[in-house]
Design a protein that fits this description.
Blueprint lengths: L2 E9 L6 E11 L2 H9 L12 E7 L1 H13 L8 H5 L9 E2 L13 H27 L1
Antiparallel strand pairs: 1-2, 1-3, 2-4
């Protein structure tokens, strides 16, 4: 049975570390299927764990209202950043993206340190063996 859902999704292409929340209307057997469909929409931040904010079952009338609002939303129809900048009041819709996709990795120097210790040990060994050979001869 086809049901109607409104799904809030985090959309991108508005600047590094920023996002814009858009409500999409979609159909599906259940909320999970509706969320999966919306995650694959253009502009939605597909690979973010928190890309889907909420999923709610709605009536057909609400479904059509949301579809109509999205049809007139210029953000969903602009092709480049220049068109996006021309949208009046658009900067007010942009929010900071709370969760970054990847946390910055700490550089662990232990591997490089072990390599240097090994190289130093080998160099000392070669020098000592050379000196020992010189003493014996």
């Amino acid at each position: 049975m086809k049901k109607y859902f409104k799904v809030e999704a985090k959309c991108g292409h508005v600047g590094h570390g920023k996002c814009i929340w858009i409500t999409f209307a979609t159909t599906g057997e259940n909320g999970k299927e509706a969320a999966r469909k919306v995650r694959d929409f253009k502009r939605v931040k597909h690979d973010h764990k928190d890309a889907i904010g909420s999923v709610k079952e709605i009536s057909f009338e609400e479904f059509m209202e949301i579809k109509a609002l999205n049809d007139i939303d210029p953000y969903l129809h602009c092709k480049n950043i220049q068109e996006q900048r021309k949208i009046p009041g658009f900067e007010g819709r942009i929010v900071e993206d709370k969760i970054e996709l990847r946390s910055a990795k700490k550089k662990d120097g232990s591997f490089r340190r072990k390599l240097m210790e090994l190289a130093t040990y080998e160099a000392d060994f070669v020098i000592r063996s050379y000196l020992k050979v010189g003493e014996c001869a």
